[in-house]
Amino acid sequence: MRSLLLLGIAVVLATITAIAGCGQKETYVIGSKQHTESHILGELLAQTLETAGYTVDRKFNLGGTKIVFNALEQGDIHAYAEYSGTIQEVILKETRTLTLDEISDALAKLGIQTLEPLGFNNSYAMGIHEDLAAETGLSKVSELRDYPDLRFFFSHEFLEREDGYPSMKAHYGLPQSADGIEHALALRAIVAREIDVTDLYTTDAEIDHFNLVVLEDDLEFFPKYLAIPIIRSDLPEDVKQLLNVAGNTLTDQTMAGLNYKVHIDEQPISDVAKEFLATLNVQSTHVAESLFDKLVERTVEHLYLAGIALLAATVVALSISIAVYSISWLSKPIAYIAGLLQTIPSLALLALMVPLFGIGTLPAIVALFLYSLLPIIRTTVTALSTVDPVLLQVAEGLGYTRTQSLIHVKLPLSMPAIFAGIRISAIICIGTATLAAFIGGGGLGDLIFQGLQLDDTRLILIGAASAALMAIIVELLFEGVEKLIIPGHIAAANRISNEPVVA
Amino acid sequence: MTSDQSHCVEFKNAGKFLGEEWVFRSVDVRIPDAQITAVIGSSGSGKTTLLRLINGLYRPDEGDVEVLGEDIPQKSQHLFRRKIGYAVQGAGLFPHMTIESNITKLAKLSGWAPDRIQARLDDLLDLTGLDVEMKERYPHELSGGQQHRVSLCRALMLEPKLLLLDEPFSAIDAITRNEIQDAFIELQQKLAFSAVLVTHDFREATKLADYLVVLGDHGIEQHGALRDVINQPTSLFLRELVETEAEA
């Protein structure tokens, strides 16, 4: 029994080592967050390196500033583009405005280097209809003071934030009061000239699309959100220079234009990045992946994540169950702990793995593994401890050893229940693995996140339906295997009641 | 009982304490060799407990039990138990194993040669009147009577000198029971094993047994050759049984 447990631990350790060993040393890993602009900037960095002959591993769609910055700090990724305002507020937790030099110095202490800012500033801005601009000659925020009758409608967040409209109104001495509106509605309303002023991001694709004019923040109220590639200080000099290629080349308008091509023209992000790099004389040879290729690749990743996690969970859960099922003071706490793991929301469990294992497949597999333990442990412990006592007494009386009784009587009779547990875990694994993309683990979730980011329902459906299909196929496979290895009457008896068939 | 008669089991002043009380104390009896011994007694008198003291499923809390001429070993009890056949009420066949596996699994685990296993299996099926074709079937595909015959085959597979049977035929209908009892007597005469049979059925005891052990509330009330015991019942329990039987 103990040897079985040791075997289980060995298998898991071997698996973990094997996966950890997969982290390529010679390739560079570029990260991005889950929004289009970050994704485009990530592509720019990635294709620049690829054009110079390096291999690049893309960890895009990472879930939030903390996860992606943490990954950079730990060396799981080598570079990504961040905004100065975000660095100041979220990463350095500074309330006062820092200069770029101050930001650079602070990051340098963490082993991270800032490259040249890309040139644009993705900040809040005031937008008006171009006709209104033409009629009034408005071009600066301060000039709004002269038009007290203009109708101000802002997104709820901007309206309520401490550094939103209340502060802006005071800073500029504006007389207008404002109402809240959904951002998407605001854009339509402004086009219809039903409202006059609303809040935008300076690089929004919609600015061009809806023919809006952005008013200059002439009294510098809005904090700067300058896009800056940040990289690990220990990268070789030539790589640093390559990553600097787009420094000071992207104006607000250029960036908005790139966003426009992705959002409105629905061009692939990698093509948009490639086209822009060509204007910098970087002739990228990157070919956008077809949807089919993406789907195949993500499906394989998904199977890998769920498969390894399930395999490890099965070995470990069975070993634990066999070791503890007969010791009730031990089996209860273990089932309790496994149950506790499952009450942690899956997204939170994944995020919790990042400080321990970084980003990528390893933390995703560990999280899925922990998630899959409970169903197997619970069904196995219950099944093993409820085998008909008469049969066990007969086995012992006839001269079966404890181990022989376990192998030849208890386990075969518990098989249907154990199988049910593994099946439940498999389905949980496949479902939860869609969230692995959140921490750079890949899988079909990548398509779903990308679809959400691009507001592309088709992509979301393809990702979700593929995961669902995979779950159904795996379910059917399990059913087939079960039929092969468990005698029909034992499986049937287990479906009706949990008691074995005894005449 | 005479002292020169050979025996397979000897209880020496044995007692068993279970839960909060003594099931029985001062049990002193020798179970004769190559005969069928029936253990009867009111429910709660400890018939099954007595049986379990023989194959070491229980250890005596006082006194000793000697089986097949030796003390019950402390270690590797499974090897000791393989010398003793065991069958229980309701047959207790393993539902996930075929009839062949039910019977031969332990022989395989004990390292018997396949030829020897096959030969023994065929002998036993023949002796108990089971069709060879049944080997491949599962227990639930057999009738109750057939299952009990398989249970006997399983108990006898390893050629035990001693067979322990705990109410083995009580869960079957009267006609089938009768047939199996006859088959069992024949089997015992052919193979000449010793058997200890726990039963609550007095008729079964008188039909099968050569030797009778009567358990009362605190231990053995009477034991001896069947005819002697029935002719001179000193135990109140036995006297009532004999009288009821005579009236019927």
Write the layout of secondary structure elements.
The complex is a heterodimer of chains A (about 500) and B (about 250).
Chain A: H1 2-21, E1 28-33, H2 36-51, E2 56-62, H3 65-74, E3 79-83, H4 84-91, H5 100-108, E4 112-114, E5 124-129, H6 130-136, E6 152-154, H7 156-160, H8 165-172, E7 178-180, H9 183-191, E8 197-201, H10 206-209, E9 212-215, E10 227-232, H11 237-243, H12 252-263, H13 269-279, H14 291-324, H15 328-343, H16 346-357, H17 361-385, H18 389-398, H19 402-432, H20 445-454, H21 457-485, H22 488-496
Chain B: E1 7-18, E2 21-32, E3 36-41, H1 47-54, E4 62-67, E5 70-71, H2 77-81, E6 84-88, H3 99-109, H4 114-127, H5 144-156, E7 162-166, H6 174-191, E8 194-198, H7 202-208, E9 211-215, E10 220-225, H8 226-231, H9 236-247
Parallel strand pairs in B: 3-8, 3-9, 6-7, 7-8
Antiparallel strand pairs in B: 1-2, 1-4, 4-5, 9-10
Helix pairs in contact in B: 3-5, 5-6
Compute the gyration radius of chain B: what is it? 18 Å
Oligomer: heterodimer
The shape of chain A is elongated
Report the β-strand fraction of chain A as a percent range. Answer: 5-15%
- State the total count of DSSP E strands of chain B: 10
Report how far apart the termini of chain A are. Answer: 31 Å
Radius of gyration of chain A: 29 Å
3D structure, described in words:
The complex is a heterodimer of chains A (503) and B (248). The longest helix of chain A has 34 residues, at 291-324. Chain A is built from 22 helices and ten strands. Chain A has 503 residues and is mainly alpha-helical. In chain A, the strands form four sheets. Chain A has a three-stranded antiparallel β-sheet with strand order 3-10-4. Chain A has helices at residues 2-21, 36-51, 65-74, 84-91, 100-108, 130-136, 156-160, 165-172, 183-191, 206-209, 237-243, 252-263, 269-279, 291-324, 328-343, 346-357, 361-385, 389-398, 402-432, 445-454, 457-485, 488-496, and strands at 28-33, 56-62, 79-83, 112-114, 124-129, 152-154, 178-180, 197-201, 212-215, 227-232. In chain A, helix 2 (36-51) crosses helix 13 (269-279), helix 17 (361-385) crosses helix 19 and helix 19 (402-432) crosses helix 22. In chain A, helix 2 (36-51) links the parallel strand 1 (28-33) and strand 2 (56-62). Chain B is of the alpha/beta class. In chain B, 38% of the residues lie in helices and 26% in strands. Chain B has helices at residues 47-54, 77-81, 99-109, 114-127, 144-156, 174-191, 202-208, 226-231, 236-247, and strands at 7-18, 21-32, 36-41, 62-67, 70-71, 84-88, 162-166, 194-198, 211-215, 220-225. In chain B, helix 3 (99-109) packs parallel to helix 5 and helix 5 packs parallel to helix 6 (174-191). A six-stranded mixed β-sheet of chain B has the order 6-7-8-3-9-10, with helices on both faces. The radius of gyration of chain B is 18 Å and the shape is globular. Chain A binds chain B through residues 390-391, 393-401, 404, 408-409, 412-413, 415, 487, 489-490, 493, 500-503, and chain B through 55, 57, 78-82, 84-86, 88, 90-97, 105-106, 109, 138-140, 142, 144, 147, 154-155, 158, 164.
